[in-house]
Amino acid sequence: MAIKLIDFWAPWCSPCQAMKPVIEELHKELDGKVEIVEVNVDENPTDATKYGVMSIPTYIILKDDKEVGRKIGYTSKADLLKLIAT
Q: 25, 37, 62, 64: which sits with the fewest CB atoms below 10 Å from its CB?
């Protein structure tokens, strides 16, 4: 099963910047298990529209290209791992 975490963010977003270290830790811990895709909403507005992203940061979990989870706003690494595990 292919699992993907999509991180919708922007450089001007304070909560997004606060989440950067968490996302970097997930990159290291989940390397080879979960594909992590970071989407800058300023540079890729069509991706944000495609997934109905209205606020950032937004984290979307896809399993076999189907959305199975979504978290909006600043969150903990533990919460993201729980979302990935569902």
A: 64
pLDDT digit string, tens, across residues 38-69: 999 999 999 999 999 999 999 999 999 999 99
Task: Give the total number of structural domains in the chain.
Answer: 1
User: What's the pTM?
Assistant: 0.94
Active site residue 64: no
- Is residue 38 within 8 Å of residue 22, measured between CB atoms? no
Q: Which distant-in-sequence residues (6+ apart) come within 8 Å of 44 by Cβ?
A: none
Q: Out of 5, 16, 22, 60, which one is annotated catalytic? A: 16
